[in-house]
């Protein structure tokens, strides 16, 4: 396919081999305008081989775009069907024509996840935006049917709009290529050259530079945040257990991209409002992730200055509890 730089594809495979985060042997690769475009290209491609409309689901709390995009594009082929675990536990025992989004590590809570549904007519889209050594231990190379990665969370070049999907099935691959060709005639050559340069720089020292730096930075932030909030009875952070990392060959403590904070007191039913009004901290409401507003998501991927400001404001808020 003339839209796709072989050199870039080769370097992407090398990158996964070094980070040990995904199997690429014998798989097809599709490029996208960020991973955002590929999320919907994947829904299209998978639903084309199902009886319509396919039910698109995700276990809560989930990244809002899965629902927003599926509903906005509103095709005859698919519809958003809500929380994946409702299908599993509900009275409907026929789990058919289902497409499940699985983000691992999950946005918002940073936990490694597996699909909650299984069966011959369940297809999954694994969103691995954060499956890099900065944000999580890499317990094993991901080996799923349809896996999506992005430059945005690898080097931070979200504005270059480059993502890629690793696809097992040839039919699905071809349908995704068709989507891509009709949506925008293929990824811009400028974008591909930019991504190639970035990945080559990452690979120069076998990834050591960026991955060690980014893990240390994210780990440091998580440790400081836990320390501040360990003094609080009002706010609780999510727990992410340490895990053996194939990339670093050590057990690694958590280093997530987001804090998924819970307001533990009955009266603090909107945690976003509490932080905003009492400490001038802006997060994202739990409700947008299909969870309770008792939760709020705080981003930890920001400049050092902004992170330190967040920490200072939280410290002050927590210190007021004791009075
Ligand atoms: N998936 C997840 C889970 C994300 O958090 C994001 C970015 N917020 C994306 C996909 C999309 O990123 P991009 O389109 O920049 O690749």
From TrEMBL:
Residues 2-318 form the Alliinase C-terminal domain. GO terms for biological process: amino acid metabolic process. Gene3D superfamilies: Aspartate Aminotransferase, domain 1, Type I PLP-dependent aspartate aminotransferase-like (Major domain). The keyword Transit peptide does not apply. Pfam families: Alliinase_C (PF04864). One of its GO terms (molecular function) is transaminase activity. Keywords: Pyridoxal phosphate. PANTHER family: BIFUNCTIONAL ASPARTATE AMINOTRANSFERASE AND GLUTAMATE/ASPARTATE-PREPHENATE AMINOTRANSFERASE-RELATED, TRYPTOPHAN AMINOTRANSFERASE-RELATED PROTEIN 3. Belongs to the alliinase family. This is Tryptophan aminotransferase-related protein 4-like. It comes from Sesamum indicum. The gene is LOC105155272.
